[in-house]
Design goal:
This protein has about 500 residues and is an alpha/beta fold. The protein folds into three domains: about 240 residues, 3-Layer(aba) Sandwich (Rossmann fold), CATH 3.40.50; about 170 residues, P-loop containing nucleotide triphosphate hydrolases (Rossmann fold), CATH 3.40.50.300; about 60 residues, no CATH class. The chain contains 18 helices and 24 strands. The strands form six sheets. A six-stranded mixed sheet has the order 6-9-10-3-11-12, sandwiched between helices. Strands 18-21-22-15-23-24 form a six-stranded mixed sheet, sandwiched between helices. A four-stranded antiparallel sheet has the order 2-1-4-5, with helices on one face. A hairpin with a 2-residue loop joins strand 4 and strand 5. The protein is globular, with a radius of gyration of 24 Å.
């Protein structure tokens, strides 16, 4: 990608404030034809607000936008659509009950004599899917499609509207590695047709694979735009967080003690086939493998969310009889779920109330919650975990991903959990918040807690754990000391 490529989109001097908050000051972005521009920054950096201004969801207080050198006004989403701008959000804008065809042409139905021309739409949908090299039946209801297929429907919808600028917000967050590769193939094809793509992701490895340039925002301000080929991972992180991190994964001296959690021959149908493992005091133990390997299913059985067909779980030499999550909590075992938004938090409740939910027995008296005590306890965790929150009554849904994870962690620490299972601890979390989560994990291990970390991010597994079990098709294929392991060694076991 050279500097002679024509500029497709330019946003200059963008300003946007909300009551009590200045979301963007001096916002800036330029996108060239046929390039992938990574838009990066920590949560709260202003990325989402900038994209909402581009899509017409927000109107800027100041600044101007030009497309192909012509200044434009984007007052609403319809303006953006007419200008060839499409945004594919992490949570897809699809109607589950409607077919892929109906979703693609929703609001722009092909009609003849006042009747929708299903045949014409069907043929055009097939052509769109062929263009992105995907074989999808246009008449399949979207609720029956995989996440990757739903994403392709969103891309086809954008192409049907002759989009020239496509924004992809965390497009790989819930995709497998193979699906990510297919997505990258589609993106490269879109580039070849001169479409400009703004790619938002917290996964830095992807940025170096697919992006041509990277624009970094911090605290609502434009920081820099640089060619990806000139950037190092360390330099990119420094631009995003505003300081140097000595290491992406904070180092610790592991004082590993006796065995605490022992899982023996855990089985459930075809999902988990005889998993046995041991977790020691002060240890961070990794559990990894490809999607469908049985990692999450194993943790759910230990936690009592699913019941095993056979097998046993012991803690500190005592066999436990866990028939429900409540049994696990009473025995000092907790689970920070992979999907914190639907399984770890009640988004419509306040952060304080979420903190109190599993702790009501000791925060209540005569069936009434002692809110003063609840606030005091939560306040201590806000300070010790450095939770960025405007006030305790702030709704959980309005917190950043990293702070949502900290609220979940706070509620389990208050319940005196001794075994902490964390499924995908940093999914959807920016690099600065990741570092803080890693530091918290190290502190918990240093305090004698036993931590089981489930992750599909191999650098994270190697950087944070003492040992790792590799699962495949529901069974353990090997155990490695991470000090002696490599990504290649783990993958060799994962696909054995």
């Amino acid at each position: 990608m050279t500097g002679n490529v024509p500029t497709l989109l330019q946003m200059e001097g963008i300003e946007k404030s909300f009551p009590g908050v200045r979301a963007i000051k001096h916002g800036r972005l330029d996108l060239r034809r046929g390039e992938v521009l990574a838009l990066l920054g920590e949560n709260g950096a202003g990325k989402s607000t900038l994209i909402k201004i581009l899509s017409g969801a927000h109107r800027p207080d100041a600044g101007h936008i030009t497309i192909d050198g012509v200044e434009v006004t984007i007052s609403n989403p319809l303006d953006a659509k007419h200008l060839g701008i499409a945004v594919i959000y992490q949570e897809f804008n699809l109607v589950p009950a409607l077919s892929a065809r109906e979703n693609i042409f929703l609001g722009q139905e092909r009609s003849r004599a006042g009747f929708v021309s299903h045949g014409s739409e069907h043929r055009q949908a097939l052509e769109l899917f062929k263009r992105v090299n995907m074989n999808i039946d246009p008449e399949t209801p979207c609720r029956n499609l995989t996440v990757a297929q739903q994403q392709v429907v969103e891309i086809a919808k954008a192409l049907s509207q002759n989009a020239r600028i496509i924004v992809m917000d965390e497009p790989s967050a819930v995709l497998t590695n193979q699906e990510v590769e297919k997505l990258f193939g589609i993106i490269r094809d879109l580039k070849s047709h001169g479409i400009g793509i703004i790619y938002i992701s917290h996964r830095l490895d992807e940025i170096f694979t697919i992006a041509d340039r990277a624009t970094v925002m911090r605290d609502g301000e434009y920081i820099a735009t640089e060619p990806v080929k000139t950037l190092t991972r360390e330099r990119l992180i420094e631009l995003m967080v505003g300081r140097k991190l000595e290491s992406e994964f904070p180092k610790r001296k592991a004082a590993i003690g006796e065995e605490r959690l022992v899982v023996h021959n855990l089985r459930r149908g075809r999902a988990v086939k005889g998993v046995s493992l041991g977790l020691r005091r002060g240890e961070v133990l990794g559990l990894t493998g490809l999607v469908g390997a049985g990692r999450t299913e194993t943790a759910r059985m230990i936690f009592g969310a699913d019941l095993p067909d056979e097998g046993s779980v012991s803690l500190d030499g005592r066999e436990l009889h866990i028939r429900s999550p409540l049994d696990a909590i009473r025995n000092g075992i907790c689970l920070l779920t992979e999907d914190r938004k639907t399984q770890g938090l009640v988004l419509g409740m306040s952060s304080r109330e979420n903190f109190g939910l599993p702790n009501l027995p000791h925060l209540s008296r005569f069936q009434f919650v002692r809110q003063g005590e609840e606030r005091r306890k939560f306040g201590e965790f806000i300070e010790s975990l450095r939770i960025k929150i405007s006030h305790q009554e702030q709704l959980a849904k309005n917190l950043s991903g990293g702070n949502q994870q900290k609220v979940v962690l706070a509620k389990w620490l208050e319940s005196n959990s001794e075994v902490i299972m964390i499924d995908e601890p940093t999914r959807g979390i920016d690099v600065g918040a990741k570092y803080e989560i890693y530091q918290l994990m190290n502190q918990l291990a240093a305090a004698g807690k036993a931590i089981l970390m489930i992750s599909s991010e191999l650098p994270e597994v190697l950087g944070m754990t003492d040992r790792v079990y590799v699962l495949d098709k529901g069974g353990i294929k090997g155990e490695l000391k991470t000090s002696e392991a490599s990504q290649e060694a783990i993958m060799k076991l994962a696909v054995a």
